[in-house]
Specification:
Blueprint (H helix, E strand, L loop, with lengths): L1 E2 L1 E5 L10 H10 L4 E7 L10 H17 L6 E9 L11 H6 L2 E5 L9 H14 L3 H21 L4 E2 L10 H10 L3 E5 L7 H8 L5 E4 L12 H9 L10 E2 L1
Parallel strand pairs: 2-3, 3-4, 4-5, 5-6, 6-7, 7-8
Antiparallel strand pairs: 1-9
Helix pairs in contact: 4-5, 5-6, 6-7
The protein binds zinc ion (2 copies).
One zinc ion (ZN) binds next to loops.
C-alpha cells in the first residue's frame, strides 16, 4: 500500500510549522500527485484561519500550482471545518465553500459553538458521558446525528478522525456518509479510525482516505500508522481513495 495524495495537512496559517510551499515541496519529495492544505476553520478560537486569509491562501495556491506545474503535483485548497452545532452547522459559509477544492469536517475542542445550548451539549454532555455509560450511548447518538446533518447541509468530502475527540456511532455515520459520497478518514496522526471501528465501517459502502494530518512538513505523506490500521482491518485497497498498490 502506497499513498499517492495527502489530503489533510496544516501550515502556518493555523498552527502548522511550515508554509504552504514547504508542504508542497515535501509532497513532491515523497512523490505525491496531490496535496491538500486544510487548516482549521475560522471558528476555532486559537488556530482558526480568518475568512480573509482563506482568500489569500486561494491566491497563493493558484500561484504555486503554476510554479510547480512540471512537478505533477496538484495543490488543493481545503479547510478542516469545525462542527459547531447539533443542527449540523459548521464554521464555513457558502462563500468560502465556493473557493475551496476540498472540504473536511471534524470536531475539535476550542471551536466556538453556535449557541449556548450547543456549548452545553458539545462540551458538558460529552465530558460527563466519559464517566457515565447511559449518557455515553445517548451522547454518541447525538454526536452522530450532528455529523449526519452537517453532511446533508454541506458538500463534505471527508470526515476527519471520526471518534478521536467525541464518540460517534461508526456504523450509522458510515451508512449516512456513503449515501452523500462523503469519505471517512483514517488519520495517521490520531490513529482513528481504529481497526475495530474500521471493520464496522466496512459493512457499509463508505470510502476512506488515509491522511497524515501533518503539522510539520517532515510529516507530509507519512501515513505508515494509518496503513497499518487499514491492513489490520483488511480494508480492500479499492475502498481507499488515495492509496495504491
Ligand atoms: Zn483535526
Ligand atoms: Zn487536522
Amino acid at each position: 500500500m502506497k499513498i499517492n495524495g495527502d489530503y489533510h495537512t496544516h501550515t502556518v496559517y493555523s498552527h502548522g510549522k511550515g508554509t504552504i510551499e514547504d508542504n508542497v515541496k515535501a509532497g513532491i519529495k515523497k512523490g505525491l500527485k496531490a496535496i491538500a492544505i486544510c487548516d482549521h476553520g475560522p471558528g476555532h478560537l486559537t488556530y482558526g484561519v480568518k475568512k480573509e486569509k482563506l482568500y489569500e491562501m486561494r491566491k497563493e495556491i493558484d500561484f504555486l500550482n503554476d510554479k510547480y506545474k512540471d512537478s505533477h503535483i496538484k495543490i488543493l485548497l481545503g479547510v478542516e471545518a469545525n462542527l459547531i452545532s447539533y443542527d449540523g452547522s459548521i464554521d464555513i459559509d457558502d462563500e468560502i465553500v465556493e473557493i475551496l477544492d476540498i472540504l473536511l469536517l471534524g470536531y475539535h475542542f476550542g471551536a466556538l459553538p453556535k449557541t449556548f445550548k450547543d456549548f452545553y451539549k458539545l462540551y458538558f454532555y460529552n465530558f460527563v458521558s466519559k464517566y457515565n455509560k447511559i449518557w455515553e450511548e445517548k451522547v454518541k447518538k447525538m454526536n452522530t446525528i450532528a455529523f449526519i446533518r452537517a453532511m446533508d447541509k454541506y458538500p463534505i468530502d471527508i470526515i476527519t478522525h471520526p471518534n478521536a475527540k467525541i464518540r460517534v456511532d461508526i456504523k450509522e455515520l458510515s451508512k449516512a456518509a456513503a449515501k452523500v459520497n462523503t469519505a471517512l478518514e483514517i488519520n495517521a496522526h490520531h490513529g482513528e479510525l481504529s481497526s475495530e471501528n474500521l471493520k464496522l465501517a466496512l459493512e457499509e459502502e463508505v470510502k476512506f482516505y488515509i491522511n497524515s494530518d501533518a503539522h510539520d512538513p517532515i510529516d507530509v505523506g507519512e501515513v505508515e500508522k494509518g496503513i497499518k490500521i487499514a491492513k489490520k482491518a483488511n480494508v480492500p485497497i479499492d475502498r481507499i481513495v488515495n492509496i495504491e498498490e
